[in-house]
Amino acid sequence: MKKALLFILFALNINAQTKDEDIKIRIVKAKLVDNVSVFGMRDLKVKNDELKKVMVKAKILSTPDNRAKLSGFSLIDNVNKIRYRLADYKGYLGVIDVAEFIPYTKFELFNEKGKKMDWEGLPEYNPAVKDYFDQFDKEGYTNVEIPVNFGTKEKPNLSIIYFGETEHEDFTAELFFVVFEKYKDLDYELYYMDKKISDIKFNNQKEKSAKAKKQSDNSDYNDE
């Protein structure tokens, strides 16, 4: 059994490494995360019970001439033919490194008086920064993009956000997606541009721990 398990882990490790020209991507882990957790986008707090925030952690190695374009990542649900846009991103070189923060708004934002919105923390609107998500549609698949509200609940001001080109060459990326809650246990695929990186299955460590504890509490074994 141990030999079989080791073989499976080894096979998964091989399948989870993909080279795109000069970019190498290796999947470290994938898991469900709290909807209210905040990493990059302070406004990205998923409050809809029908949605679930998930994270794929990857090691990325690139070159100065071909750094990773974060908007090129997408998550694919082949069962329901859904293609999810990257919703949030955290990139860092080491444990104590300051996280990279490079979001852009898809649309230029204006307040109710028609004045361009410009406040600290608001992602930049820059059409010169290419959004690669739109370049790699899959035929027969629906693109799902969750807009961020930069206004208020009473007066929403919505825009899709996307992420630009990283400044890092050898780094760790935490890629966050927002999927439908009812589909969170399905098998997914992570893509970079038009290339499949890896099969993805999200694990909930909290639920696993709670289940293990419950099984332990219900055990017939008693040492008293």
UniProtKB/TrEMBL annotation:
| Location of region: Disordered | 205-224
Ranges of compositional bias, category Basic and acidic residues: 205-217
Annotated protein name in UniProt: Uncharacterized protein
Q: Give the species this sequence originates from.
A: Flavobacterium sangjuense
Q: Print the organism lineage.
A: Bacteria, Pseudomonadati, Bacteroidota, Flavobacteriia, Flavobacteriales
